[in-house]
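Mods, move this if it's the wrong board.
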Amino acid sequence: MNFDLPEDLVALRDGAREFAEKELAPRAAASDEAETFVEAQWKACGEQGWAGLSIPEAYGGAGLGSVATSVMLQELARACAATAVTMSVHLGLASSALVLYGNEAQKQKYLPRLASGEWLGAYALSEAGSGSDAAALRCAATPDGAGGFVLDGTKLWITSGDHADLIVVFARTSQASKSKGITAFLVEAAWPGFSAGKKEKKMGIRGSSTVEIRLDRVKVPKENVLGEVDKGFGVALGLLDGGRIGIASQALGIAQACLDASVKYAQEREQFGQPIASFQSIQWKLAEMALRIDAARLLTFRAAWLKDQGRPHTREASMAKLDASRCADFCAKEAVQVHGGAGYTKEFPVERFFRDARITEIYEGTTEIQNLVIARQTLGA
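Not the wrong board. Structure tokens:
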């Protein structure tokens, strides 16, 4: 069994790292401080080809798999977690929706624009009354008599919702069953009736825009129904498996950034006439951080590899997301502790890492939901 990355992924990793350090890291603190969307960062990602990394070559992408995407996202997140989650949603949820469930006409129409970075993708599932209980959504899709639908409702917590060009929207087309009456739609933000509402003021990931979106009699042609009518909940769940691998990758990037910063500071900061890295209490913190990162990375790569093989990976994706997000939280806390009082100030990036890490245990399914998924899979329920 070979645990080394193949040469092509090593080259991808190194290229993503160089790009992130040059294009993302210098802008990360400013985007966080001003709470402005990572517009320049996203444009740079598109120019570099990252926006189409997992989109098939036939539609303008690189045609690489989930392991490659994880490698790339980890490197982006080491420099700017906000850019990483923007990319994760664009690739793992929006673009993947078309790759996995779209028909040929839909793929030809939208994937080239998404692959080039000309268009940004988003994913709209959550509502005020349906977060963890996603099947409780109430956004309504009413038949228009011509095979299409009219959408009415409000979606919450939508990453990039006010900057996206194409949004995968889930709406209720039948009241017959809670989970079997949901349909997925491809909605263009430029259509009449679509608008972005309240922008959330967040603790972290502040360069990523999180908004509500409003659908006021948005007319969706039949050509933009994604998959089968009334069977969209399966689409949502299928996409979330991949999305969780993306968030695990983002969490790993944050955790690695915490360790890197802590090692650097511990070797430079002196107390009692010697670098604090010479003290066992600091060494143990660094050792525990390194251990947890390696374990979470192995879980994440396993889930990504299974996805690339077309094998079931629901349990493994939840394990990766659960462990990597806990790892990010732990490493961020310890990084601030290693930095002492300096870590509590904005003079050092670990303060931002601490705030960015917290969301990884919440979005794409909370820690509690991951435990539930893993338990059910283990019990065969």
